[in-house]
Amino acid sequence: MKNTNEKLYTYSRRQRILAWIALVGIFVCGMMAGAFIWQTKTVHTPDSGVQTELSGCQMRENALLAQLNYNINDADLRWATTAHRHNADIYDRLAKWGCDENTDKYKEMRDAEFATFEVLRKIFDENIVDDSPCAVIERNLLSNIQNCGDSPNCHLENAEIYSKMAEDGCTENRQKYAQKALDELKIADGVRVNDTNIDTSEIRSTINTYKKLQMQNEAKKYLNKVEKMVNPGIDFILELQRIIEE
């Protein structure tokens, strides 16, 4: 039962990636414009326009500048990340082996390229889709989590989903989802105005959650508590005891 009183605004993965790339693109445009100007500079005599002999540092700069990646498509995250890291390495070599008067400029370009690399790498890492079975299970179950508001039954459903994720999801996420399941149980108990206003489906859902979390002792304590409060019937109690002991 979803709470229809609250509107949630979400954005797709594609929209988030494109927004990040737009910001990176603005940053890179200024940086690459400066690099283009530096690369296309040539040395001429004031009168004849004939190119003079290049010094050793100028020749090294020309050789390294020719290795830079231009017109990088930042929408291609895998390639763009590698390309910007490559450029950062080239500018680092230019700062070390180029002409002294350009050292500070090349250091600035190195830092700018490396900063772009870090941003794109983070976007890339965050958007790699894990297709392992446990990750697929988690994504599918997570899509069933509801915005419950003050509905105890809804929070209990969320708790059971999280416990299923802890049971069948990825090992490294077990503790996280187990805690979320317990949090939902606590919320369900907290938002219920009358403790005696609980039905058998809610009791069964709570027991199943504890069972999936392998918390049999907590399940027994809960069963003893509700038995005293609502007396759901001996057959129902025996059924839940069997579930706990399985």
Give a topology summary.
Blueprint: H1 13-39, H2 56-65, H3 77-97, H4 103-126, H5 133-142, H6 152-168, H7 174-191, H8 200-212, H9 216-230, H10 234-245
Helix pairs in contact: 1-4, 2-3, 3-4, 5-6, 6-7, 6-8, 8-9, 8-10, 9-10
Characterise this structure.
It is rod-shaped, with a radius of gyration of 31 Å. α5 runs antiparallel to α6 (152-168). 68% of the residues lie in helices and 0% in strands. The chain has 246 residues and is an all-alpha fold. The chain has helices at residues 13-39, 56-65, 77-97, 103-126, 133-142, 152-168, 174-191, 200-212, 216-230, 234-245. It starts with 12 loop residues before the first helix and ends with a helix. It contains ten helices and no strands.
Features:
single chain, 246 residues, mainly alpha, 10 helices, 68% helix, disordered N terminus
SSE class: mainly alpha
Distance between the termini: 30 Å
**Assembly state of the chains shown:** single chain
Number of helices: 10
> How much helix is in the residues?
55-70%
Helix-strand pattern, N to C? HHHHHHHHHH
* Overall mean confidence score, pLDDT: 80
Indicate the proportion of strand residues. under 5%
Return residue spans where pLDDT drops below 50 for at least 5 consecutive residues.
Answer: 1-10, 38-48
Number-wise, the strands total 0
Rg measurement, Å: 31 Å
Sketch the major β-sheet.
none
Q: Tell me, briefly, the overall form.
A: rod-shaped
